[in-house]
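In response to a reviewer's request, we include the raw inputs and outputs for one of the modeled complexes. The two entities were modeled together in a single run.
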Amino acid sequence: MRALGLDGVSVYYGAVRGVEDVTMHVDEGEIVALLGANGAGKSTLLKAISGIIHPRKGAITYFGEVLAKQSAHRRVARGLVHVPEGRRIFTTLTIAENLELGAYGTERSRTERAERLSEVLDLFPLLRQHFQRLAGTLSGGEQQVLAIGRAMMSNPRILMIDEPSLGLDPQKVDIVYDMLEEVSKLGTTVLLVEQNVSLALEIASRAYVLQQGSVVLSGPSSDLESDPRLSDAYLGKSSDGRD
Amino acid sequence: MATETAVLPTRSRVDGFRVLRAGLIVALVVAAALVPQATQNQYYLGVAFQAEMLMCLALGLNIVVGYAGMLDLGFAAFFAIGAYTTGILSTKEHWSIIASIAPGVLIAVVCALIIGFPTLRLRSDYLAVVTLGFGEIIQTIAINLNQTGGPTGIYAIPALTIGSVVVESNTGYYYVFFVLVIVFAIFSTRLRGSRLGRAWLCIREDEDAAKAMGINTNHYKLYAYMFGAVLGSITGSLYAPALTAISPASFGFSESLLIVMAVAIGGLGSIWGVMFGAAVVEIFPEVFRSFAQARLLVFGIALVILMVVRPRGLFPERAFQGLGARVRSRLGRTVVSPLSGAGEALVSLPSEES
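The model returned the following C-alpha cells for the whole complex.
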C-alpha cells in the first residue's frame, strides 16, 4: 500500500523557490530517507507534507487520498506526524507532560492517553527513567528521544523526522537510530530527512536525493551507497558530473 | 511491567499535602471573609473592594496572557463593555443589574471574535499593538457616543439587587466581589486542567510544536481571548453598580496596564500568584501614602526591584506545582502530573525508582 505519494510538487516562499516538481513515494512500513545538502529543500518538503505550508503545484496523497489544503492539525489527527527540526520539545515542562501533550490531537479519553503513555514508555525506557525531570535539563540525545516519543504518543501511521542526528555525538546518534528502527518494527512508516548520508542509508530501504529543490537521484540504499553522484550532490557539482 | 504504569485514581486517598493545602485555603478564605467584620473603616473597605475587583480582572487576563501566552494590552476594553452595557441598560431601559450581565457578555464575546479572528494569528509583539489599539477604540467610542454619556459617563446607576436583597454599602460589594473572585479562581483552576488548558499550555510554550502535535492554534487562541473577554465583562457589569457612576477615564490604557502588571507581578499562569499580584498592585500605592508626593515613585522602584529579584513573578506557576508534585511523590511514590487535572496520578513508578 502506498502510504505517501508526491506528484510534481512545487513549493515557493513568495518568489523564492523551495522545491520544484518533486515526485516521490513512500510505501507502508518502509523507512525512506530524504537526503541532500543544506538548502536543498528537504525541510520545505516535510513542511508541505505536514501541512504547515501548502504547495503551489502538484498533489500530495496520503494512503491514496489527496490532501489538498487540509490543515496541519487535521493531518496529525489522521496519523501524519512530523518531528520538526531542532526537536522543539517543551523545555519548561516535564517529560511526563511533554509526552501527554503529544497525544493531544488524537486522544479520545484520559484512559486512552494513559495506555498510550505506558506503551511509549515501554518502547523507550530512557524516558521512564527521567519521567519527572524538566525536559530542558535533558541532553541533546535524550531530547531527541523525547521528541520521537512525543510524536509516537499520537500513534502515527507515518512518522516524518527532520535531522534527528543534528548536533549529537556518534554514540547518541546510534541510540536515536535504534529507536527509529524500533518504531519501524511496530509498523509505522518512517520518512527520514538527514544530512548524514551513511547513517541514513544504513536503516533506510530507499532514498531520494534532493539538490537545489529537485530530486536528482533515487533508488534502493544499497545502490546509492556506491553511487558517485551522491557525493556530487553534496559537494555542489551538477547531476551530470560536470563542474 | 504493566502494573507499574496502571492508572491509579488517587482522589480518595488521604494525602498530607492536600490536607495542608486545603487547610491553608480555608483559613485564607475565612480570613478574607471576616475583613468587613474586623474593620468598619470605609477607606480600608474601599481599598479591599478595589483589590478584589482587580483580582477578577487579573484572573480574566491571566487566561489570555498566562495560559495562552498572548500579550493583551487592551483588556480594560472588555471591562468597559461590561460596565457600559450594564450602565446603559439599567439607567435608560431599567433592566436589573443581574439581567444586564448576559448582554454585556454577549457583546464582549462578539467584539473578541471580531478583533481576534483576523489578528490572533499574529505573534506576541504585534498582537500587543493590535489589542492596545482596540482598548483605545473602545475608550474613544465611550467618550464620543451620546448613549454612553460622553466624557462625563453614566451616573445614578441603580444598586445591585439579588432577589429581595439590595446591595448598597461597601461591605455589601466587598462580599459580592469576594464571591466573584472565588468563582473566577475555581473556574480558572478547572480550565487549566481541562483539554483547552492543555492546548493553551502547548501554544504558550511553542506555537510551532503545538501545530506539529495537531493543535489548531488559531482556534484555541481565539477561545482564550473569548474566555478573557467574558470574565472582564462580568467584572465590569458588577463594577458599574458598585461605583454607581462610570466614566471613560476608568477604562483607559493605564487600567489595562495595571491588570497586566498584576498578572506579571503575581506570576503568569499562576492563579494564586495573579490574585496576590492584584492585591499588591492595589494595596502598595496606598501603603506608600506616607511618602506623600513620592509614593508612585516608591511604588515604581518597588516594582522594578520585585521584577529583578523574582522575574517570573512572586508565585511562578512552575514552583507552585513543582512543590506539590515533589511533596506528593515523597508521600505516595506517585508521579503527579499537573496536566492530569485535579491531582490525579497518571502513572506510578516502581519503588526502586531513583
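As requested, we also summarize the result in words. The first strand of chain A starts at residue 2 and ends at 13. The domain at 2-235 of chain A is CATH 3.40.50.300 (Rossmann fold).
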